[in-house]
Amino acid sequence: MTDVSMVSGLDSDGIVVEWTKVKNLGSGSYGQVHLAKLSNLISGDHLLAAVKSCAYSRSASIQKELHILRQFEDSNRIVECSVMW
Ligand SMILES: Nc1ncnc2c1ncn2[C@@H]1O[C@H](COP(=O)(O)OP(=O)(O)OP(=O)(O)O)[C@@H](O)[C@H]1O
């Protein structure tokens, strides 16, 4: 996977979001996890989040993980889980 420090994409609400890698947090079986600064290009809001990314060819595994995590959205142990394309 090509390593880039800044990525733009659409969040699940169709909002354009730019994320900049701050530091590497680790990697697992399906992708890499970075502490990233997310910027909403419309509102100008920023937040820090752990962002997992992977090569497109491996994205089915991350989508499966997202599907499982969404079943626990009401859990107080999951802060928020969202997707960006
Ligand atoms: N929210 C988070 N905050 C801080 N570090 C995180 C966070 N999520 C993941 N990490 C770090 O990134 C690493 C990789 O996470 P990831 O979820 O991809 O894999 P894993 O669950 O550890 O392993 P596997 O996918 O192989 O079962 C973790 O081991 C952890 O060190």
TrEMBL record:
Coiled coil: none annotated. PROSITE patterns: PROTEIN_KINASE_ATP (PS00107). Keywords: ATP-binding, Nucleotide-binding. InterPro entries: Kinase-like_dom_sf, Protein_kinase_ATP_BS. The keyword DNA damage does not apply. ATP binds at residue 52. This is Protein kinase domain-containing protein. It comes from Hibiscus sabdariffa (roselle).
